Structure formats: structure tokens, C-alpha cells
Amino acid sequence: MFNFKYNQMKTNTRQAKVMILSFLALCLGFVSCYDDSGLMEKIKEIENRVSKLEEECKAMNTNISSLQAIVAALQQKDYVTAVAPITKDGVEIGYTISFTQSNPITIYHGQDGNTPVIGIKKHTDNIYYWTIDGEWLLDAEGNKVKVSGEDGTTPKLKIEEDYWYISYDNGATWSILDKAVGEDGDSFFESVTQDENNVYLTLSDGTVIELPKKSAFIQFEDINVKSICLNWDTNFDGELSYEEAAQVESLGDKFHSTTIGLFKELKYFTKLTSLDETFYGCTQLVYINIPSNVTSLGSSTFSECKSLRCITIPKSVTSIGGGAFSDCRSLTNITIPESVTSIGEWAFINCTKVRLLS
Question: Which of 225, 221, 197, 229 has its CA nearest to residue 211?
Fold first, then answer.
């Protein structure tokens, strides 16, 4: 995403250090009593300054990536499940924000500095656009730059010769910004607050992003599904949390020939990589949401699921075992991605209504 190209800055610093050391060696060759403490102190200052700039670039990179992830979460109508502070040496330096579906994001605090403040704002067209120091980021034609979408653009930042540069055409051209001073930079995030229903992220330019919260527990639509899933309730509180679901590696035969009807929440079982005879004989199963991390649908996975109407196989799946969907007589549509390279015998036998989609 936002790759901060400060290699040139590091190269220039290395060259400066080599020149200083060479000069020092030359001087020592002629004057054996020469006091080099001053030069060594300068070298140490350069190393510390480079280290601070590198840390600042890393935090900037993380924060900008988090901004894009926040927009994606909003577009996917995702929910926040937890906001946890990050501490270093006993001092709070940022937060980790967890979602029901999206990966957790990390945001860092900052202090006064000359770091360009990248932000986002929603325009009257309900689309988020990039801002810099509170103003719309404009391309060469004077158009606002979208954060995401097919025509979205990712601005890039780099440090070169002790100055920040920005590019919004993938590095083809660069515009100079402020001097990089090597101190703690301005945070993109001024504050993180929350109430019972929402988390509020206030950016440095005053923009407030509102993210809806959701209980840490999965809300199952089918009470029969919940009853079975409590097999993985590790703290025995009568609920299955998103964290508990994410630790399950196998469903075994717990669902065999049960009366479950809807299992949309299977998508939260993000550690599952294969399903093998998992839902065999679930004759009342109508709909299920396969996790995006599953790579294999083994033999008889959905065999005799006579009420199953349609199913989308995620792009992560590479193989479908023999009889995986046998006797799914109500199945009309099934989407098989290009990632599938192996389909076993009789995978769709007696699926009299099925129409394969790709």
C-alpha cells in the first residue's frame, strides 16, 4: 500500500558517515593525538536522527493503511468488537481496533512535528476522498482523489534529502512538502472515544469517523446452530465469541444429520481450512456461508442437504471431493471459482436442478 521510500535518505546518510570516517582516519594518520570525540558524537547524532525518521515513517505507513481499512470496514458495514490500548514502557502510544469480519487495525498517537497530515473526508456524494493538512488532495487535473474503488488512488510518501515528498500518480511525479525533522510526527488520529453503540475516531483535521459497535458475542439466527456451536464455548459463559470461533480448527461431526437451517455465522470460523462430511445429512439446511480461508471441500461435505438452494464457493477453495454435493435436490445455483483445480467423482450427482456458475 503506502510504501514510504526513504531508502535514498538512508543511502545519503550512509555516504555521509563513510566520508566522515574516512576523513577521521586520514587525520589520525597524521596527528596521533587528534581528539575524535567531536566527530564520533556527530556520527551518533546522525544515527539517532535516521532512527527517528525510520520510526516515524513506519508509524505513518501503519496509520495510512489503517485509514484505508477503516473505509473498507464502513463499506462492508462491518462492526467494531474491541478497542484495546497499545502501551510502550508504560505509556499509551495507540490503539488496536478489532472488527467482526475485517482484520484488526493499529493506529498510533503522535506529537507536534512537521509530518504531513493525511486524512479522509466524505464528500456530498457519500464517497471518501483523501485530504492533506485538512485540504482536499487534488490530482494533476484538479480532481479530488478517491480513497477506494476501481478509480481510487493511493498517495505515496517518501523522505529524500531531509524533506517529505508526496505523489498521487504512483511515484511518477513528486511534490515537496515540509522538512522531516526526525521528531514525533503529527498523528492522523487526534482521539479515539466510544459509547455504548459506536466508536468515534477523530482525525487531526477535525474529521470524525463513526464506526458501529457490535457485541463480542456472535448473534446466531438459528438457535439450533448456536446450540451446537457452544461446543467451542471455551469459557463456558453460554455464548460463543468471535475470538472463540476464530480458534476452531475443525467442526468434526458435530453437525451430522442435525436440523440446522441457516448457518451464516460459519464465516467467523476463520481458522477452518477444510470441511469433510461436515454437514452430511443436514436435510433442513437452506443457506450457509463458507469461510474465505477454506481450501478443501472434502467428500460428502453437503451430501443429502436436500433443502440447500444456492451456495458460493470462496476463491480460496482448490478442491471439491467426491459426492460433496450429492443429493442436494433443491440446489439451483452454485458458483465454482477458477481456483478449483480438482473435482471428485459424483460431486453433484442427483443435483437435478443445479446450474453451475463461474
Answer: 197
**What are the two backbone dihedrals, phi and then psi, of residue 82, each rounded to the nearest 5 degrees?**
-160, 145
Q: How confident is the model at residue 245 (pLDDT cuts 50, 70, 90)?
A: very high
Ranges of beta strands (E only) in 298-357 are: 310-312, 319-320, 333-335, 342-343, 355-357
The CATH classification number of 215-358 equals 3.80.10
| Helical spans, DSSP H, in 2-36 | 7-30
Among residues 291, 328, 297, 327, the alpha carbon closest in space to that of 310 is found at: 328
Round to whole Å and give the CA distance between 149 and 143. 15
Q: Count of alpha carbons within 13 Å of 344, Cβ hemisphere only? A: 16
Supply the pLDDT for residue 14. Answer: 53
d(CA 74, CA 99): 11
Integer Cα distance of 292 and 286 in angstroms: 19
CB-count exposure of residue 18 (10 Å: 0-12, 13-18, 19+): exposed
Distance CA 286, CA 310 (A): 8
CA 9 distance to own-chain centroid: 28
With 90 as the cut, is the pLDDT of residue 257 above it? Answer: yes
The reply to whether the predicted model has a pTM over 0.70 is no
Spatial distance between the Cα atoms of 314 and 135, rounded to a whole number of angstroms: 40
Q: Domain residues of the chain, as ranges? A: 7-212, 215-358
Task: Please determine, for residue 181, whether its predicted confidence score (pLDDT) is greater than 60.
Answer: no
Grid cell digits, residue 162: 531531509
